[in-house]
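Table S5 (text form). Sequence records supplied for joint modeling of the two-component complex.
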Amino acid sequence: MAFAPGRPLALAPAPQIVSPETTQSVMRNVLIAMVPAFAASLIFFGLDALVVVGVSVVACVGFEYLWCRLFKLPNTAGDLSAAVTGVLLAFNVPSTIPLYMLIIGDFVAVIVAKALFGGIGRNFANPAIVGRITLAVAFPVAMTDFVAPLVSFSPVDVVSAATALAPTASELSLADMFLGSEMGVLGETSVLAILIGFVFLLVTKTITWHVTATYVGTVFALSTLAGLDPLMQVCSGGLMLGAVFMATDYSTSPATLKGKIIFAVGCGLITCLIRFWGNLNEGVAFSILFMNLLVPYIDQLTPNTPVGAEKRGGGAARE
Amino acid sequence: MGRLMGTSHARLRSHNRMGVVIPHNKATAELETVVMPLPDKIVLPMQQHIGAQCAPLVKRRDHVDAGQLVGHAEARTTADIFSPVSGSVTEIRSLYYSNGRTDVAIVIEPDGEQTVAETVAPPVVTDYASLVEAVKGSGIVGLGGAGYPTGLKMDADLSAVDCWLVNGAECEPYLSSDYREMMEHPDDILAGIGTCLDLSGVPRALICIEDNKPKAIELLRTMAADDARIGVLELPARYPQGASRVILKNAMGRAVKRGGHLTDVGAILFNVTTMSEISKYLKTGMPLIKRRITVMGDAIENPMNLEVLIGTPTGEILEFCGLSRKPAKVIAGGPMMGITQIDMDYPVVRQQSGLLAFSEDLCGRHETTACIHCDKCIGSCPMRLSPISIQKAYRKADVAELDRLMADLCVGCGICSYVCPAKQPLTQSVGLASRLLKAEQRKARGRG
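The corresponding structure-token record, covering 767 residues in total, follows.
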């Protein structure tokens, strides 16, 4: 007697297996990758860092949840993307920020930059960057109220109230900047911690190296050309944080490899323009925001050429 | 050959990023083929190939012999169907496919004698034309899964073809049917290729095998050493390495123009088991009535490579291999391109290389969430298409946009749905889009 199934068998189209990766697991990987930078912020800024990150995450997830409830949308608060935004925005503010300001930034990030445009995947710009820029424009004093790190690795005492990019900080050692013992916003001080997170993202194949390497490489090359210390430029400010965690954001970076390279070169170029000739603190944030706005156009100009497609004239498509 | 291998390898480096590495799960690879005893009944569908459906040539209560022609269609694109057993026809019935289509099937009760039909005799083959005619009458179709009538594929203008490609990639996870053919019958494979080269005048052949099968590569290289025309090419084990256009690109660096055929760019491609079956047919004259399938999955008690008669019902195979758990999903073929089977009477068909039974654990319901534009579907499409854009255009029924996105180039490999973290039904959408676009193109040609 042949086998007869006791209950109906599943009917499904191919493929019958899917990768275990989900939106939530991707976001979880990003959160894990931010743990080293978070740990560094605890070391350098103490419990203030914990409070800032905690409040920001709760606020972002809360706003996402309330939005979904209010408009009867599928609840996306559990996909961890709002938590990522919360941590990222916290990484972009000083440890001394008044919490109400931070919550305003969270609101702008989650509701204005993301939810109003259709939620996850439809935001045109990185929510955390929009949040940071809004705070920087609205509360310029609070956003640059940096405190000296609790731990220092070099004999020079850091007392200046500017970030390493300001001229007064020229006595900062490269080691301090690499390890993170410098003044600045929470998450961008320790290049080492960010790099550990970057390696994790690469190993888990959450992102590829192209955008980060091209962005940093562009800044390195342009700094060298401008006669500045390229390592200093790479390790200072929010470059590493932006290049690893923000320029690589899925929704707001181009689809194809060609597009990603153009996007990253553009980020590097604008960062350098602002750093060399501008007087904004948010060079990295503005550069990524500008390039975010160009993504639809970059996508249009850099589609993959399907295998076997007729080559298009004008050299627009390369195979 | 050395020069060829050099250039192929150089090209490989630039193209092997296409596709993705999927867990191979080929636990049965080293298990020798087991021959399944005669089943209680044979259910023989009349559509086991691409092309016209065959019409049954026998009726209820007729006696048939093994190898007897029982299904035939008066059409160019078709492949005859032969009885795998001797016995009596008990029923001509309709059969439901899981995709909603129906088919006609001849049900035969074996008498256990396996009397061979008088018509079975080795064909007389003297030149390429007679080889093609012989293969057309052999019931052999593309055994890797495509099911395109092999004789018809061979019946092409080969004057510009400089390479006879043989597909031993077997890129689908779980399956090791082709691998067993390479390990157990390398002589038949090489004899088949040799005959085809001799008679067709094609100067060389290249057997393409994924690098997760080093033993097969080694064995075929050793055995083919004295035939300078036959080379073995190692390709990276990235799914879908075995899709025809992908293997052509990776093995030879050539791309078929949209809407074209492999022969346009000087190549012709056959599955490795198809080559072997041609050789066996030329020796014995016994048409294609049996094949090897890999029976696997977490609900199967004894996973194995099983030689079954074509038409053996799924339920009898599951019974023979045993079930360790309750299956929630039964799949004909591999997990990436295979279709679910809901009727346990539904049999093994010619082009089917696997039968998988998955428990509930392996078929979790995946909730579809919003696209996060990770662009993994775009980055892993072997044809370099943009599945998510095609899905959007399809939902708007924007045919002009589908044409611009070249949705018709989709090979249906399933990789876009596989990699999607949002679990969007991309493969389905692109498949539907491809069908819509092709239908519109046919309409346009009709008007023009």
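Note: Residues 1-16 of chain B have pLDDT under 50 and may be disordered.
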